[in-house]
Model the fold of this input.
Amino acid sequence: MAGGYLLTALTVIAAGAVLARFGMARSEAVALSSMLGFVFYLALLVWAFTVRSIARQLAVLAAGAVMMAAVIHLAG
Amino acid sequence: MKDTFRKSMAWLHTWAGVVLGSVLFAVFWMGTLSVFDREIDRWMMPATRLAPATAPISLDAVARAVLPEVPAGASQWRVDLPTQRTPVLRFTYKAADEEPAPRQLDPQRLAFLPEQGTLGGSGFFFPFHYGLHLQWLEIGKWIVGVAAMGMLLLLVSGVIIHRKIFSQFFTFRPRKSLQRSSLDLHNLVGVLGLPFHFIITLSGMVIFMMIYFPQAYTGAYGEGKAAKAAFFADAYGKYSRPRANAPGPLASLDTMADVARREWGGAQPESQPYFVRVWHPGDANSYVELRRSYAREVTMNVDQMFFDAASGEVLHRFQAAPVMSAQRFISGIHFIQFEHWTLRWLYFLAGLAGCVLIATGFLFWLEARRARHAAKGLAGVRAVEGLTVGSVTGIVIATLAFLAANRLLPDGQQRAALEVWTFYLAWLASFAHAWWRGKAAWREQAWTACLLAVACVLLNAATTGDHVARALADGKWSVAGVDLMLLALALLAAWSARRLAGKPAQAQARVPGAEARS
Done:
């Protein structure tokens, strides 16, 4: 659950950066990505509770986090 | 595969419910009360049971009334104007090292009312709803946030494990065993309230998006304090300038309000300012902030205008951009600060449905396990039952004790703190009682709530003279409404007490164990 939150928080930051890069007003990009963050987190949690293997769960979360960190680095 | 999915969702629903149910009940209960927080304020602050102002209120007259109370060197003072639900004006100020409690003014005479000695519904129930009164590191808001995500998960998993939504919607067997009827009721209010519960939970989190995603701005704005301030200024609007440290005058606030009204569309109610705030009062760099009312729209707009205090010249105007306007709309759906009595009552009922949903979920968990745990000698039911009784009937008792303390204790500044102590001590006592008495605690606490609710109504009549008939005759709808809801609560508590006590033994024997789960 904490891992899911971490990935969500990174995704929110990354989406804010990317949207702003694509010309959206910066504050609007942050507001939009933050609001969608809650829905993203919910979907992630539902998924996490249906995946049997903890290893697979952690692998997906870690891969996602690395990807988002890269996006933040590139777009931020 | 499909069946394992449903099973994992059932497991999730069961355990998320047990673990988070207590917090969720507290949040739903306090949220339901907050729907009528201003009306509870009137009940708890008898001196504010006033008729609304008949003539428009002059901001200059307001300034004349409050300025003697603003200490030299204060950083700001603010007056919130009366609304449909709050007849009084609310005055606050901030100085370097103090931020005293709000004071209230009579709308007709613009005179200060005596200290009411209570936090009231808007000062206690409402902050409890979103922050549990745990301010350290915003820990209360985080606990509520975790519970809110849990609520969304519970709603999603509840729908998935619920095979026959349509037929079960029309199934309610109130005379069957407690386990059967509590599950029926759980399903009924769950399906009926589903859209409301989903939206109210999600919108509650959207309000605090900058608490729950505190780093969100860093991608677009970069790190650091200045970046954060820039984001907040772009999103929510903000103007500031430093003190000049030289004396300066205050021009006519009414003239500034006229400029703002013209900017916001004219004389209609939606163009009125709802509060005025003067920054650096008395300084040459002092400036005035006006905010546009949201009494007539769902969106809690952040329209604001800033004026130079000395000249009345416009310094800054702000309106939220589209996405932020959507965020303010979603916030407005949650806050219902707009004027609409029908919707307000529906919110109240839907909030109560949420309380029933959580309470019946707990009851079903307990009844489904009671016989099995007793047979195996497990302590689970006993422990969860104590927790459940304390967090369901316990918080109701604590709330009523809070209201009773307000009418029993003498007026004065110290009463506010004593009321809060009464609340927590009553809550603690109800937990202790619940663990001590086990199943019998349900019945005993429900009767206690019934008696307390009636006592509150009697105390209000005795100490203020505004009994229901009198309050109705005088048009004090808020006072009459709170009294009538207390009486309704007394009836509901009496009914629950009888139902929770009734025919337990043979009913349980018919539906043993957890396999009765649908």
In short: Chain B touches chain A at residues 4-5, 8-9, 12, 149, 152-153, 156-157, 202, 205-206, 209-210, 212-213, 215-222, 231, 234-235, 321-324, 326-327, 330 (CB under 8 Å). Chain B has two domains: 2-45+123-207+341-510, 53-115+238-319.
